[in-house]
Design brief:
The structure holds 4 protein chains of 4 kinds. Chain B is α/β, with parallel strands linked by helices. Chain B is 38% helix and 19% strand. Chain B has a 7-stranded mixed sheet, sandwiched between helices. Chain B has a 5-stranded mixed sheet with strand order 7-9-8-11-12, sandwiched between helices. In chain B, strand 8, helix 10 and strand 9 form a beta-alpha-beta unit. In chain B, helix 11 crosses helix 12. Chain C has a single domain, classed as Rossmann fold. Chain C has 14 helices and 8 strands. Classes of the chains: A alpha+beta, B alpha/beta, C alpha/beta, D mainly alpha. Chains in contact: A-B, A-D, B-C.
C-alpha cells in the first residue's frame, strides 16, 4: 500500500485545501498523472502522483483543509490485491448505516447531504439537520467545493507569502548585486526573428532573458539548487521558477524544467503555457515544488530594477527591470540605448559577491550574442531544430 | 471491602453452605493462596476441603472434573490463566463436552477460578488474557467479575450451575476497594451485562480489568463533551447481546475495550455481533482498543504502551465522533 | 521383532501361573494362584466365555457394518483383547465407577450397557447410549456408572482420580476402574494422575491394557523404560503384571486388586494383551508383521479358554456353539434395534450443550436480582 | 459579412476577459490605453494579440504593436484588416 500525501508545493505552504479529485477508488494511475487539485492559498494546483498504482481509498474529501504530509489517498501497488471495497463502490459517499436508514424514512437522498462524520461520512445528525432544511449542510450537486471567498483568499495568501518571505529574511543572509545590460543586440535579433512570423510564433524578450539566466548559471552553479539541512545541494539542471503575478493580487513562481536544454520556441511555449495555467489555476504540483532558482521580471510594470527576496530553499533570485532607452556610453559616446537592469539576490551561506558578479557579467555577455543564445541547447529536440530552421 | 476479601467471603460462605464444596489448587492452603484469596480458610475448613495440589494443572483440573462427576462441588483454583493452558485439554475436551458427548447424562458442576491479565510487570508468560479463548467453547460459562460486588456475588450462582463455570479475576483488581451492599442483596445473576455508566454518544463495551480504565476514559470524555455509556459484559459466555445492542441502538457508536489481543478475539466477537444485530443503528465504524499484538513486555513503559489505557480509549472515541456540527 | 517383549512378559506358560511381577508387598498372593490350577466354577467359567464371545461377535459385526457405511467415523475394535474387559469388569461392584478409552465397546457391554444401545450409538441413532452424540468412541451410561468413552489418550486418568476423590470425600466404599492403553503412559496426564492418586490415597484401579502398540508405535520405540510397572511403582504405587490373554488371570488379579484399592489406595495393573485387528478402520498395519499377529492369535483368549474348559470337561462343542449362537442372536437383535432407531431431529441440535435447569436457574436468579 | 462596430467591440472585450477575467465591459474606457486599464503585462498582451489573430484571422506584425493602444485602436485595426 502506498500513501499519497499532500506534497509541499513551496516553502510558503504548510497546508492546503483539497478542491477536487481527478481519480476515484479503483482507478489506475500512472507516475506523473494529475490526480487532484489542491488550493495552496495562492493557487489551485494540479497535484501529480509519483507512483504507478491503483487508487484504494480516498482519505480526504473535497473541501477539507489538511496539513502538508497528510495522507490524501492510499494506492495499491500495481498487482497488489484489493484490500476492502469492491471497485464498483466507486465514489459513493460514505453514509453511516443508521443515517441511511433514517434518510430512507425521511425520504432524503443521503448522498446529497454533507457529511460531518468519520472520513466525511454522512451521519444520523447530518440527516436530521438536512431534514430540518438547514441549508448549510447541503452540498451543491456536482461541482467541487468552491474556493474560499476572495477576501479570505487574499488574507491567506498574504499570510503565506509573509511567512515564506519572513523565513527567508530571517534565515538567508542575502547579498545583492546589480548590472546594467545593453539590450540593443538582443532586441534587434528578436525583432528580426519575429518580423515574418505570425503572432503565435513570436518570442518575447522574457524568454530570451530566461534562457540567458540558465546558460549563465553554468559558470556559477553555487546559485542554482537548494540549501537544505545545513548544506547546499547544487542542481544539475535549471528549473527556473518564473514569478507570475496573479490577477487580483499575489504571486506564484512555478518552474519551467530544464531551461538550459530548451530551444527558444520551446521555452516561449512553456512560458506562455505556464502563465496561462497559473492564471487559470491549474499548475502542477511538480512545478510548484522544485524550482532551483527564481527569475522575476517586473519590467512590464515599469520598475527599473527589482531586488528580490530569495524563495527558500533556493539560494538565488534574478530580477529584471524594464527594458527602456536610457543614456549609455558606448565607445566613448553617450547614446540613448535600450538597457535593462539585472539584479541578483543570493545566499551568502553558499556563494559570495565575487561569484555573483561573475554570474551577472556572464549574463550580460550571453545577451550580447542572441544567436548563440538561441543555438545553445544542451540537448536540442527535433522539434527545437525544426523551429530554429524556420 | 476489597475485591480479594470479597472473593474470600464468597468462598467461606460457599464452604459453609454446602459440604460438597471444596477448594483445590496450588498453594491455596498453607500458603494462603497466591493472591491471598484463600488466606485463613485452611484453618477454618481443614486440608481436605482446602486442598493443596502439586503443580499438576492437567491432573488436578481433570480430578476436579472427576470429583464433580462424583457428586462433589469442587472449586478449582488455577493460579493464573497462563498455567491454565496446561489444563486446556480437561477444560475444553472434557469439562465442556462431557454433557454433550454423553447425550445429556453427565453434567460437570465445576467452578474454576483463575487470575488473568497484565499490568504488573510480570512479563510475557504471566500476563496473558485468554478469557476469550474459553469464551469460544460451547459448554462453558465464563465470568469476568470487574467489581467487588461481582467478586462477592458471582461464586454462589456459579456453584449452583450444573455446568462448568470459569471465573476470571483480573490480577490488578484484587486490591480494589468498593462498597458492597449487605449479603442479602447479593444474589447476582451470571447471565447478563450491566450498564456501569449511562451515556448517549458512544457505547464502551468492556469487562474485567479494563472496566476501571474504561470508566476513567468515560469521565475524561465527559469533560470533552462526549457522553459515553459503559457496558460491563460480566459474562463472556454466553454473551448478553440484548444489553449491548440496547446501548448501541441508543448511542449509535461502539468501542470495545479488551485487554486480549485483537485478532480473533472476544472484542472481534462483540463487534461482529453488533454488526450482525445493530448494523442499521451504527453511525460510525466500530472500533476497539485491545492490547498491541506483542507478547506483553517487561519494561514498564513498553507494557503500558502495549495495554489498553484510558487515553487510548479517549482518542479512539474522539476519532469516531467526526467533525461534530 | 516387535513381538519379542510381549513374549517375554507372558512367557511360555501363558495359560497358567499366578499373577506375575507384583512390585509391592501386597501379601496373600497365594490365595490367588487358583487361576489356571484348580477347576473353575462351571457357570462362572461359561459366563466368562459367553461374555468374550459377545464382545467378539459384536466387534466383528461392527467391522462389517463399517464396511457397509452404517457405522462411520473412527472405529476401534477390541478383538483379541476380550479377556481383559471380561475378567476385569466382572470383578467390580455396582457402586464402582468405570472410565475407559475409545476402545471401550467391550467394557461398556459388560458393565451393563445394552448391546442395542451400543450398536444404535454407533449408528448415530438417538436410541444410542449417548443419544447419537458420541458415537463409537463416546459410550456413556449413567446408570452403569460408565464414564466413557474418553477419546483423548490419558484424559481418563485424572478424571478417574477425581471420581475416586469424590468417593473418598463422601465416604463411599467404591472404587474407580480406569482402563487405558500403554500409549497413555507417555502422556503427562498419566504421571500427574499416578502422583495425585498415591499422594491422596485414592481408590483408583489403574488398568493398563498393554497391547504393545500406541497406534503404530511399538512400546520400545516410545518408552525409555518398557517395564510399565516400574514407571508406576516410582510413584509408590502397588503394581502387578497380568497375562491379559487369560481371562481368569485377569479376573483374579482385578478381584484381588479391587480389594486392595478399596482398603489401601490405588493400584496399577499391567494387562499384557494384543489387538488382533488394526488400530482403527483406517489403519493399513504397516508397523507390524503378519507373522507376529498370527503368533499372538494362537494365544487368542477365546479359543485358549475354550480349550481349557473342554479339557476340564466344563465345555462341550455343542455348548460352545450354543453360546456362540446366543451371542450372535444378541448381535442380530442389536443391529435390528439400531436399524429401527431414529435420527434425533436437527431442531434439537443445540440440546445438551449445557444443563437446562442450570440455565433456568441462572435466569431465575437474574430476575430475582433485578431491582 | 462583417460585424457592426458594437458587435466587434463586444467580441474584443470577450477576448480580453479570457485574459483578465475580472474585467467588466462597462469598466473599460474605449479611448484609454488597455494595458494600463487592465494591468496587462507583455505576456498577457501577446496572448491577447494571439487571440485576435486566431479569432479574426488577421495578422499583426510586431511593427504594428504601437498602433494598438486603446480599445478603439484595436477595433479599427481589426475591422480594417479582416478578410
Amino acid at each position: 500500500m502506498i500513501d499519497f500525501k499532500l506534497p509541499s508545493l513551496g516553502a510558503d505552504m504548510d497546508e492546503g485545501t483539497l478542491l477536487r479529485w481527478q481519480v476515484k477508488p479503483g482507478d489506475s494511475v500512472k507516475r506523473g498523472q494529475v490526480v487532484a487539485v489542491v488550493d495552496t492559498s495562492k493557487a489551485a494546483v494540479d497535484v501529480e502522483i509519483w507512483h504507478d498504482g491503483v487508487v484504494q481509498e480516498i482519505k480526504v474529501e473535497p473541501g477539507e483543509k489538511v496539513p502538508v504530509g497528510t495522507v490524501l489517498a492510499t494506492l495499491r501497488e500495481p498487482g497488489e490485491a484489493m484490500a476492502v471495497q469492491p471497485a464498483d463502490e466507486g465514489t459513493r459517499r460514505p453514509v453511516s448505516p443508521s443515517a441511511r436508514q433514517r434518510a430512507r424514512e425521511l425520504g432524503i437522498d443521503p448522498e446529497a447531504v454533507a457529511g460531518t462524520g468519520v472520513q466525511g461520512s454522512v451521519t444520523l445528525a447530518d440527516i436530521e439537520a438536512a431534514a430540518q432544511g438547514r441549508p448549510a449542510t447541503v452540498v451543491p450537486a456536482v461541482s467541487a467545493p468552491s474556493q474560499a471567498p476572495a477576501a479570505d483568499r487574499q488574507r491567506e495568501m498574504r499570510r503565506a507569502i509573509a511567512a515564506a518571505m519572513g523565513r527567508s529574511k530571517r534565515e538567508i543572509p542575502h547579498y545583492y548585486l546589480s548590472q546594467t545590460i545593453p539590450m540593443a543586440a538582443a532586441l534587434a535579433w528578436l525583432q528580426q526573428r519575429n518580423q515574418d512570423l505570425p503572432v503565435t510564433g513570436r518570442i518575447l524578450p522574457a524568454a530570451l532573458l530566461l534562457k540567458a539566466v540558465a546558460l549563465a548559471l553554468r559558470r556559477t552553479p553555487q546559485l542554482n539548487g537548494f540549501f537544505r539541512d545545513g548544506a547546499f545541494q547544487p542542481s544539475e539542471t535549471v528549473h527556473a521558477g518564473v514569478a507570475i503575478s496573479l490577477r487580483g493580487g499575489g504571486l506564484v513562481a512555478p518552474a519551467i524544467h530544464g531551461v538550459e536544454t530548451m530551444s527558444l520556441p520551446q521555452l516561449m511555449g512553456a512560458l506562455s503555457d505556464l502563465v496561462r495555467r497559473a492564471r487559470a489555476g491549474s499548475l502542477r504540483s511538480s512545478e510548484m515544488s522544485d524550482p532551483t532558482i527564481t527569475v522575476t521580471n517586473l519590467g512590464d510594470q515599469g520598475a527599473e530594477a527589482v531586488f528580490g527576496v530569495i524563495y527558500p530553499p533556493q539560494v538565488a533570485l534574478v530580477g529584471f527591470g524594464s527594458v527602456a532607452l536610457r543614456p549609455w556610453v558606448d565607445g566613448g559616446e553617450l547614446r540613448a540605448w535600450p538597457l535593462v537592469t539585472a539584479t541578483l539576490a543570493a545566499d551568502h551561506r553558499v556563494s559570495d559577491g565575487h561569484q555573483g558578479a561573475l554570474f551577472l557579467v556572464e549574463l550580460r555577455d550571453c545577451l550580447q550574442q542572441p544567436q548563440a543564445l538561441a543555438d545553445a541547447c544542451a540537448a536540442p529536440s527535433i522539434e527545437g531544430k525544426t523551429d530554429h530552421e524556420t | 471491602m476489597s475485591y480479594r476479601e470479597a472473593l474470600r467471603e464468597a468462598l467461606r460462605e460457599a464452604l459453609q453452605a454446602d459440604p460438597r464444596v471444596f477448594l483445590m489448587g496450588e498453594d491455596v492452603g498453607r500458603y494462603g493462596g497466591t493472591y491471598a484469596v484463600s488466606k485463613g480458610l485452611l484453618e477454618e475448613f481443614g486440608p481436605e476441603r482446602i486442598r493443596d495440589t502439586p503443580l499438576s494443572e492437567l491432573g488436578f483440573v481433570g480430578a476436579g472434573i472427576g470429583a464433580a462427576l462424583g457428586g462433589m462441588r469442587p472449586i478449582v483454583e488455577v493460579m493464573t490463566v497462563n498455567f491454565s493452558l496446561l489444563a486446556l485439554d480437561p477444560i475444553v475436551n472434557t469439562a465442556a463436552m462431557l454433557r454433550h458427548m454423553s447425550g445429556g447424562q453427565f453434567s460437570v458442576p465445576l467452578v474454576i477460578r483463575m487470575a488473568t491479565g497484565a499490568g504488573r510487570q510480570v512479563a510475557a508468560q504471566h500476563s496473558n488474557s485468554f478469557e476469550g479463548w474459553y469464551a469460544h467453547v460451547p459448554g462453558l460459562r465464563v465470568l469476568s467479575p470487574a467489581t467487588v460486588e461481582d467478586a462477592r456475588a458471582m461464586l454462589a450462582p456459579a456453584l449452583a450451575d450444573a455446568d462448568p463455570v470459569l471465573i476470571f479475576e483480573h490480577a490488578q483488581l484484587y486490591n480494589m476497594e468498593q462498597e458492597v451492599p449487605d449479603g442479602a442483596a447479593l444474589a447476582a445473576d451470571i447471565s447478563s451485562a450491566r450498564v456501569r455508566r449511562a451515556g448517549s454518544d458512544v457505547s464502551l463495551v468492556t469487562h474485567g480489568g479494563s472496566l476501571p480504565k474504561t470508566m476513567q476514559a468515560a469521565e475524561a470524555l465527559a469533560g470533552l463533551g462526549i457522553s459515553a455509556e459503559v457496558i460491563d459484559l460480566r459474562v463472556l459466555r454466553p454473551l448478553d447481546d440484548d444489553t449491548v445492542m440496547a446501548s448501541v441502538r441508543k448511542c449509535h457508536r461502539a468501542v470495545v475495550v479488551d485487554e486480549a489481543w485483537r485478532s480473533g478475539s472476544l472484542a472481534a466477537e462483540v463487534m461482529a455481533r453488533i454488526g450482525e444485530q445493530a448494523f442499521f443503528d451504527l453511525d460510525a465504524p466500530l472500533a476497539r482498543v485491545c492490547s498491541e499484538e506483542v507478547p506483553i513486555p517487561y519494561a514498564r513503559h513498553l507494557e503500558e504502551a502495549a495495554l489498553p489505557q484510558a487515553q487510548k480509549i479517549v482518542a479512539t472515541v474522539q476519532a469516531l465522533m467526526g467533525r461534530r456540527p | 521383532m516387535n513381538a519379542e517383549p510381549a513374549m517375554k512378559i507372558v512367557g511360555a506358560g501363558f495359560a497358567a501361573g499366578p499373577p506375575q511381577g507384583e512390585t509391592a508387598p501386597a501379601g496373600g498372593s497365594a490365595a490367588h494362584e487358583v487361576a489356571g490350577v484348580g477347576p473353575l466354577d462351571k457357570a462362572f467359567a461359561l459366563g466368562l466365555l459367553s461374555d468374550m464371545l459377545r464382545i467378539r461377535r459384536m466387534e466383528e459385526k461392527a467391522a462389517e457394518l463399517y464396511g457397509q457405511q452404517k457405522i462411520r467415523g473412527f472405529l476401534h475394535l477390541y478383538i483379541g483383547e476380550e479377556a481383559v474387559a471380561t475378567g476385569a469388569v466382572r470383578a467390580l461392584q455396582p457402586q464402582d465407577n468405570v472410565v475407559a478409552t475409545y476402545r471401550e465397546h467391550g467394557h461398556a457391554l459388560l458393565r451393563g450397557v445394552g448391546m442395542g444401545a451400543i450398536m444404535a450409538e454407533m449408528y448415530g441413532r438417538q436410541e444410542g447410549c449417548s443419544r447419537g452424540r458420541g458415537g463409537s468412541m463416546h459410550l456413556f451410561d449413567r446408570a452403569c456408572r460408565f464414564f466413557g468413552g474418553q477419546a483423548i489418550v490419558g484424559a481418563g486418568l485424572p478424571l478417574a482420580t477425581g471420581l475416586a476423590l469424590a468417593d473418598r470425600m463422601q465416604g463411599r466404599h467404591a472404587l474407580t476402574a480406569c482402563f487405558f492403553g500403554e500409549g497413555a503412559i507417555a502422556e503427562g496426564a498419566f504421571h500427574e494422575a499416578m502422583n495425585l492418586a498415591v499422594l491422596w490415597h485414592l481408590p483408583v484401579l489403574f488398568c493398563c491394557e498393554n497391547n504393545l502398540y500406541a497406534m503404530g508405535t511399538a512400546l520400545a520405540r516410545s518408552e525409555s523404560q518398557t517395564d510399565l510397572c516400574v514407571k508406576a511403582a516410582s510413584y509408590g504405587m502397588v503394581t502387578r503384571k497380568v497375562d491379559g490373554m487369560d481371562v481368569v488371570a485377569v479376573h483374579d488379579a482385578v478381584q484381588y486388586a479391587a480389594q486392595q484399592v478399596r482398603g489401601q489406595g490405588p493400584m496399577f495393573l499391567e494387562l499384557a494383551t494384543y489387538r488382533f485387528r488394526a488400530h482403527s478402520m483406517f489403519d493399513p498395519e504397516l508397523y507390524r508383521d503378519k507373522s507376529e499377529v498370527e503368533a499372538w492369535k494362537t494365544r487368542g483368549p477365546i479359543h485358549t479358554f475354550s480349550a481349557r474348559l473342554k479339557a476340564q470337561g466344563s465345555l462341550t462343542e455343542e455348548k460352545f456353539l450354543a453360546l456362540d449362537a446366543s451371542a450372535q442372536s444378541e448381535v442380530d437383535a442389536a443391529v435390528s434395534f439400531a436399524e429401527a432407531g431414529s435420527w434425533e431431529p436437527v431442531t434439537d441440535l443445540l440440546r445438551d450443550v449445557t444443563t437446562p435447569t442450570a440455565k433456568a436457574s441462572a435466569m431465575h436468579t437474574a430476575r430475582g436480582a433485578a431491582p | 459579412m462583417k460585424p457592426d462596430r458594437q458587435e466587434l467591440l463586444k467580441v474584443i472585450v470577450t477576448l480580453l476577459q479570457a485574459i483578465a477575467p475580472e474585467l467588466e465591459a462597462d469598466m473599460l474606457v474605449a479611448e484609454r490605453p488597455l494595458r494600463q486599464q487592465l494591468d496587462l503585462d507583455s505576456m498577457d498582451w501577446l496572448n491577447f494579440l494571439i487571440s485576435l489573430h486566431q479569432h479574426f484571422k488577421v495578422d499583426i506584425p510586431e511593427a504594428d504593436y504601437s498602433k494598438l493602444v486603446c480599445l478603439n485602436d484595436v477595433a479599427d485595426y481589426v475591422s480594417a484588416r479582416m478578410p
